[in-house]
Specification:
alpha+beta, Arc Repressor Mutant, subunit A, 3 domains, 4-stranded mixed β-sheet, two-stranded antiparallel sheet, 56% helix, flat, transcription
């Protein structure tokens, strides 16, 4: 009885270890997985590693990625993503930061208003601005600026030269370009003859810090998957060009050539190689099945935009696939899928449901946010819509929203109340 019990425990521990290894590999990015496979292949004679074909196409079978990085300027995107990975431990904040990274133009400035980025990330302005504050501390100083003045102020603050006069001059730098020195001196509370001295303090600042980097378009993460729209609907496939691969070399040496200990080591190494190959196969299968469910459930989102997202959670996908929600979380974390329009994070396919009251059909939070923003943006400024009026319009559009939900989302979008919007319109 004791013998049987001991064998059973050992088998359980082995299965648990294999499962943990598979889950760890599932959660790895393509780059992390490549590094892991290179390490495993270097210590296991039964493993042969093949770099992703996208790397091979860039320089042949002997392409040295490390040497290439050293010989060329890094891309702006790669530079900021490295800093994002170190600066943000919260996955939600990291994804918001990546949204900001996607909005960078070659100068290093943001190409979109912060409000637009916050809406795309589905977060309130205060949280988006908190993330932006961290991003504006990245090196080189001046990245993630809203405009030229913002860029120079960030750098002046970093160099501890941001006096009141310097900040005022930077904020009104257009007057300097137009040679309106008297007007600029009046704003800075100084004499026109003092302006050249203030200018001397900021002359060395870099108005476009992003130009120090390579500007070949580089996605935040290489897409692990590809979604295509065909005549019969959507199809999803793994992106083989960015997927590292291994080959298991079978043991062809006769057992008689080695002692008992050496044979045991060979069998162990071969078993580990086969287990790793199986874990890779499971990783690809889980990624593909997960993405297929997401694309099938959110096809309207892919075709028509964020307003057409339907409520979908990790638990929904896990239930359909017969997996645990934590497995789905690992599968979608940091993953991108290439669509005919652009690359999207798999996290973008999820949306929480909004309570619509008894009998109402659930709608996604993103749909509700988009609706509120659109109707307020299209209103007559002299006769703005009340929250109750927005509720009525939503119901006519097939969305059942509670008044408190409208008020909450209006606040999230940074939209004032109808009374405040009317006052602003009259004052303008």
């Amino acid at each position: 009885m004791d013998l049987v019990q001991t064998l059973s425990q050992r088998q359980s521990m082995q299965m648990g270890g294999q499962m943990l290894h598979s889950l760890a590999i599932l959660g790895m990015s393509s780059q992390d997985l490549s590094d892991h496979l290179v390490e495993q292949a270097s210590s296991n004679p039964y493993l042969a590693y093949r770099a992703p074909s996208a790397f091979i196409a860039r320089g042949g079978a002997d392409f040295d990625a490390v040497a290439a990085v050293a010989a060329h300027k890094p891309s702006l995107m790669a530079h900021v993503v490295d800093q994002i990975e170190m600066a943000f431990t919260n996955p939600g904040d990291r994804m918001i930061a990546l949204r900001f990274a996607e909005a960078l133009d070659p100068s290093g400035w943001l190409s979109q208003p912060v409000e637009t980025i916050a809406l795309g990330a589905g977060v309130a302005m205060p949280r988006a601005e908190a993330v932006l504050s961290v991003l504006q501390g990245f090196e080189p100083a001046g990245l993630f600026a809203r405009d030229l003045s913002d860029c120079l102020i960030i750098q002046a603050r970093e160099e501890d030269i941001l006096t009141w006069e310097v900040e005022t001059l930077i904020r009104h730098i257009n007057l300097l370009a137009e040679n309106r020195l008297a007007e600029l001196a009046d704003l800075c509370d100084c004499e026109p003859s003092d302006i050249p001295e203030i200018v001397k303090l900021i002359r060395h600042l870099n108005p476009k810090p992003g130009l120090a980097f390579d500007h070949q378009p580089t996605p935040v993460f290489p897409p692990d998957l590809i979604a295509l729209r065909g005549p019969e609907g959507w199809t999803v496939e793994l992106n083989r060009a960015t997927s590292p691969r291994i080959t298991v070399r079978e043991d062809r040496l006769p057992d008689g050539k080695a002692d008992k200990g050496a044979r045991a080591e060979r069998r162990k190494a071969l078993a580990e190689a086969r287990a790793l190959a199986l874990a890779l196969e499971r990783r690809g299968d889980t990624l593909l099945r997960t993405a297929a469910v997401l694309v099938a459930r959110q096809s309207a989102f892919l075709e028509k935009g964020t307003a057409h997202l339907v409520p979908l959670t990790l638990e929904d996908v896990a239930s359909e696939l017969g997996l645990h929600a934590s497995t789905i979380s690992r599968a979608v974390s940091g993953r991108m899928i290439q669509t005919p329009v652009r690359a999207l994070p798999l996290r973008a396919f999820f949306s929480r449901a909004v309570s619509t009251g008894a009998g109402g059909e659930a709608v996604s939070r993103d749909s509700a946010l988009d609706f509120v923003q659109r109707v307020v943006g299209a209103e007559d400024p002299a006769n703005p819509l009340s929250d109750d009026a927005i509720v009525v319009l939503a119901e006519r559009a097939g969305l059942r929203l509670a008044r408190r939900t409208v008020a909450k989302y209006r606040s999230t979008l940074g939209l004032a109340s109808s009374y405040e919007r009317r006052r602003a319109a009259l004052a303008g």
